[in-house]
Each structure stands twice: as structure tokens, then as C-alpha cells.
Amino acid sequence: IDALGPFDTDPCANDPRPWDCARHNIALPQNGLSLQWSGFVWMNPPFHRYEVRHWLQKMAEHGHGIALLHARTETEWFEVCWRHASAMLFMQTRLMFHQPSGELCVITKPGPNYGKSANSGAPPVLVAFGGEARDRLEKSGIPGALVMGWNYRV
Q1: CA angle 11, 16, 22 (to 5 degrees)
Q2: How far apart are CA 120 and CA 128, in angstroms?
Q3: Which residues pair with 128 in a beta bridge?
Q4: Could you give the residue ranges of the DSSP H alpha helices within 34-88?
Q5: Are the C-beta atoms of residues 6 and 36 closer than 8 Å to each other?
Q6: Rounded to two decimals, what is the model's pTM?
Q7: Which one in 34, 50, 53, 90 has a CA-CA gap of 20 to 30 Å to 73?
Q8: Which has the closest alpha carbon to 70: 58, 60, 55?
Q9: Which of 62, 65, 38, 68 is nearest to 136 (CA)?
Q10: DSSP state of 51
Q11: pLDDT tens, position by position, 20-62
């Protein structure tokens, strides 16, 4: 967030959350999908495969912000990114989950990962919508592969 911000609106904010991602945070029971977004948007949408496309479509229509997603490039919902995004940064490492207190989440279920930090379970990608978002990804210094100027074919 610090490397990419500041952000004006987070339509998918958690409550409680360890930190604010934007100046204006929309959290349940409000429905960020049905409300008006303003300014530069940070969006970490619900990752439900039947919901994420609606959030991405709204981001594409807004055209001014960055979405944090799983890099599921083959899915139907990711097509919105291929068609409308200005850049994508495929991040080098997985995201680590945190408690509302800010502490790292640790796996407490017995098994091979017991005691390890919990991660998102999939590779992350930051998707830029609009020129300013593309520029912020390019200047962020976040490790990974920055992709711009692709030729999307169906």
C-alpha cells in the first residue's frame, strides 16, 4: 500500500482491519459494489469466482486504480484484466495474512505447515487500470514481473 498509494477509496475494506488502505473505506454491511467510487481506488475484492468478475468490471469502468488479485490468468473473470488493464505486476512472493492486530497469522492446524505463516495460497498480481495506476506500478519497486502493452487475442 505504501509503495503504491495514497488511495482515495477502498470499496472492499475489511472490518476490523490491521490498517487502512485508503482515505475512504467501504466495509460490510455496506455494499461497495453498489456504491459510487471516487478518486484513485485500491481494490482487494472478494475472491469468490462468481463475484470477482463484477468487481473487476466496475474497476474497469471506473478506470482509475489498482486491484490485488490471484494470478488466475486462465479464468473467465480474468478476461476483464486482459481487455481493460493498463499494466500487471506479477509479484515475486505470495501475500502473508495478518490478524486485525497486525500480527502475522500462523497455521495452527496439525500438518506439514503447522507453525508457518499463512499465505494467500495463490500467486498474487497487481492490476493497474489507467495511466496513473500503470505509472505507480512501474515506480513502486515491488519485486516481480511488470507486464505492459500485451496484445490480447481471443
Answers
A1: 40
A2: 20
A3: 66, 87
A4: 52-62, 79-84
A5: no
A6: 0.86
A7: 34
A8: 55
A9: 65
A10: T
A11: 999 999 999 999 999 999 999 999 998 888 899 999 999 999 9
